[in-house]
User: Fold this.
Amino acid sequence: EIIIVGDRTHPESEGLIGYSRGRGIIIENAEQAATLPLRKRRAVLAQSTQDLDCLRAVVSALLVRTEELQVFNTICESTQTRQKATCELAKEVDTLFIIGGKKSSNTNKLYNLSKKIQPNTYFIESADQITLEMLKNSRKIGLSGGASTPPEAIQEAAVRIQTCFAYQNHQEKNVQCQS
Assistant:
């Protein structure tokens, strides 16, 4: 049996299922893995944008349900690096903006990981979604984006934040930031 740790609706996971010729199943989390029946042998691989902690948790759950478990860490190295850096950034800032497409698995993972560390994390698709309210009581702000987020989008968000702070210094508090 082949276990694919990933998002059930992600095209990559669906492709891996097809490639497994009916021998694979998609597991999204450790709770699902813990419900699987006992097996003699299993192989585990991950959607390339999966977060490493989720893969580790699924593997831990499978260790007690499988006699022989082969694990292949197929998470993209740049994905792991980006996730680790974003989590470190989330620890250091008052507010964090994750910039990217709502359908991007990579960006969604960054958002979900960051939100666990920094509750004041926002998922935005463009700089014009940033408001003064989001920046309220923030002294240190972080920006991160998914693998497919263009550098210009992050730069535009930085400019927007600077504009909002400049505007806030000259106007009453509850006024929306205008660009």
Strands lie at 2-5, 24-27, 39-46, 66-72, 95-99, 121-124, 141-145. Confidence is low (pLDDT under 50) at residues 172-179. The radius of gyration is 20 Å. The chain has two domains: 2-72, 78-170.
